[in-house]
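Sanity check

After download, print the first record. It should look like this:
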Amino acid sequence: MPLKLRPCVPRCRISARRLRAAKIQGRLAELRVEEGSHVREGDIIARLDSADYQAQMDVARAQVQHAEADLAEQQRQQRITQNLAQAHVVSQDQLDAASSRVRLAEAALSQSRASLAVSEANYQNTLIRAPFSGVVVKKMAEVGESVAPIPPGVNISTASGAIVALADMATLEVEVDVSESNVARLQPNQPAEVSVEAFPDRSYHAVLRQVIPTADRTKATVMVKVTILDKDKDLKPEMTAKATFFEPAKKSTAPLDSSKPIVSVPKDAITTRAGKSVVFEVRDGKKVYELPITAGIENQDQVVIKQGLAGSETLVLHPSDKLKEGDVVKIKS
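Expected structure tokens:
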């Protein structure tokens, strides 16, 4: 039974945006993406002016080379002093002094290498990389502009310093403002149905993922986040959506009807058409027919079918997006 939680506006929208800002302040020297560009995790999407950091890195490398040369010389002097001490030409105090100079040279080399690591890290911070695979939905800065890190607690959607907005299309979810009076009726993993204004004839299966642990006093609402289970390529971030939550199924105390067979099919046989779960049955050995189904629980690679199948059908595995009712297929032996 659905809960009457509509309307969900003004804040019921599909969300997946993440802003990418610089770790250090600098001038944007290069921007390698445009709106709509697809990026992979780790790809360089922008670069800050790095001339100063490159020079600092060169100086640090030279200091490491100098420290290495000084250590080699102090170790040579130590070996000479050890030989002279064994011949009783120099005192033990002179040998100890040579050993101390070696340890000081080793410490200086370690310090130089640490400085080089810091310089290299600062240089790497001028290369802005994609934190995850996704699509660039908006450019927030242009080449030549100054950008800076966004401090904690600042509203990143309005703060200057962001370079691009990325969207991970695989993690689309809906942000819903629910009235405070209805929040107590919600629980994690509660089933829901989502529709978007752009496609009013479609609906998507969803579950409640999170109830944000704070309320909006001005609207007397609490935000919840809903994960869309059967998302498709037509859904876009920031689309206006509506969500309907359903009461969780109550456990039945009646005995199971053992006369009714349990029908299950491979998960790979189920696909989505117009927001609904369907399978394709092969009849007469060649033609396929689209059958709407109601899916139940999953058990490894099998899905229990609550409604729509009798259990004797021949189904198509891995149906393509182009497959439609009436198409002719060939059955593999």
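If your output differs, re-run the checksum step. Summary of this record's structure: The two ends are 45 Å apart (CA to CA).
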